[in-house]
Amino acid sequence: MNPVDEILGPFARHGSAHFDEKDVTQLGHALQCAHQAEQAGASAAMITACLLHDVGHLINVDAGAAIDRGEDTEHEIRAQAYLAAWFDDDVLQPIRWHVDAKRYLTATDPIYFSTLSHGSVRSLEVQGGPFSKAEVAAFEAREHFQDAVQLRRWDETAKSPTAATPPLEHFRPYVEAALRSDKRPQA
After folding, report:
1. For the segment 60-95, what is each residue's pLDDT rounded down to a tens digit?
2. Residue 186 falls within a domain, yes or no?
3. Under a CB-based contact definition with an 8 Å cutoff, are residues 56 and 79 in contact?
4. Is 110 inside any structural domain?
5. Which domain holds residue 92?
6. How many domains does the chain have?
């Protein structure tokens, strides 16, 4: 199987499911986030990270029920583990740290909390709330923390039920370009 088909498979199978926002599908959210990155001129790796950042929700059959129970599904860790076979840290680390980026931003940006959707406020509670000063410092020491923060900002604004985006296939070339060189399809 082509690796990109395998990577995007969860979107084909489960992307029509609604996530914590209820008005936006998982696929719609992913496309909006990736589209914002593309419009900003981000790298193929960052566009791919934006597209795939919530794939951990799609590969966890209990994700919806866990969220309803108020449990942290650690979707960012699941996504990183799922994608590690295909990508390097320039894709994996922004995905892995995008939840911590929300905690970081709520601790460091006085306006950011007011921009959070209802679902993000609810999940922030189970994800540990805003960072402490020590956690802020530790997060800022991470190699890809700025990419995670940028992904998080796009993530938060990628929740419109009416936003127009290109289809999933539009992002295939970015995903292919971001693959580790040993995983790229041979021409």
Report:
1. 877 666 667 777 778 899 999 999 999 999 999 999
2. no
3. yes
4. yes
5. 3-181
6. 1
